[in-house]
Amino acid sequence: MNVRRRLIPAAAVAAATAVGIGTLSACGGDRAAAGTGKFDVVASFYPMQFLAEQIGGSHVHVTSLTTPGQEPHDLELTPRQIGSLEDSDAVLYLKGLQPAVDNAVAQSPVKTKIDAASLTTLENHGNEVGGHAAAHDTRTSEESAGKDPHLWLDPVRYAQVAEGVGDAFAKADPKHAADYRQNTVKLVGKLDALNFAFQQSLAHTKTKVFITTHAAFGYLAERYGLTEEAINGLDPDSEPSAERIKDLESMAEADGVSTVFYETLVSDSTAKTVAHDTGLKTDVLDPLEGITAKSRGTDYFSVQQANLKALRQALGAK
Q1: What is the rounded distance in angstroms from the CA atom of residue 61 to the CA atom of residue 57?
Q2: CA dist., res. 231 & res. 275, Å (int)
Q3: Helix, strand and coil in the chain, % to nearest 5
Q4: What is the Cα–Cα distance from 125 to 228, expressed in whole angstroms?
Q5: Which CA distances in Å does 208 have to 129, 217, 278, 315?
Q6: Which residue segments constitute the domains of the chain, with CATH numbers given?
Q7: pLDDT tier at 238, thresholds 50, 70, 90
Q8: What is the pTM of this model?
Q9: Contact indicator for 228, 208 with CB cutoff of 8 Å
Q10: Three-state SS at 94
């Protein structure tokens, strides 16, 4: 991924936090503190926002730190955004994905801090060079240590996180605990159905290997018995090495790979280069880090259904 991961210095975070409430008051805006009277949740990026909205329903007011179309790894927080943490009832984030958010949450006095990564198990998908989910060279410190944060692409892990978020909401806002639990059960049921659809649809395919420009699909691949080959060590705007092209071409021929997948929030230049040099097609496999007009769907479930359709076609599902 062509990303720039710059940590906000602790002093800057502290200073911005100190002026945050005043900034918010001066700017007005859509903060819950301005009179919505709802349980105010700040979400770090789309997968966390979706959980908060689905579980919280009409009782929550959710704001996302990452705007639609913004590459979440690249997020830099404004003083106002840092102030929003100060003024919120809860923050829902995924530690290890957005360093600026991790820093701000650590500095914030918000009482309810929900780390999605702590609600399920994370695994090592990042350091297997040349293998499934090969590392790219712009990972966060947690990612480079091998802990893959892209848990939401696995419906089973995402459901585990949803259950933890539901419990946290119920504890922090006990007046609406019953509704949070009911909404959580409904969401988990839909995620279970999605998992079943992936299982059934990908059980019998001509190949189990797919190529991506971003090593985001390790959990999904592992869940459904597939192998992700990421174009390792490259950002989306780089040209792959001749050696890597040769390796991919040999692998594609040996494993019957037909498609190089790219994503919606970054350039497709790498995918097109590899596809041209190896005689493969290109298609979108969306890591669901944000929803835009270019997304093949309007929410988590519709985009995942589009991902499933793309995988079925690329893998030669029977």
Answers
A1: 9
A2: 12
A3: 50, 10, 40
A4: 10
A5: 18, 13, 18, 6
A6: 7-115 (3.40.50.1980), 125-137+150-318 (3.40.50.1980)
A7: low
A8: 0.83
A9: no
A10: coil
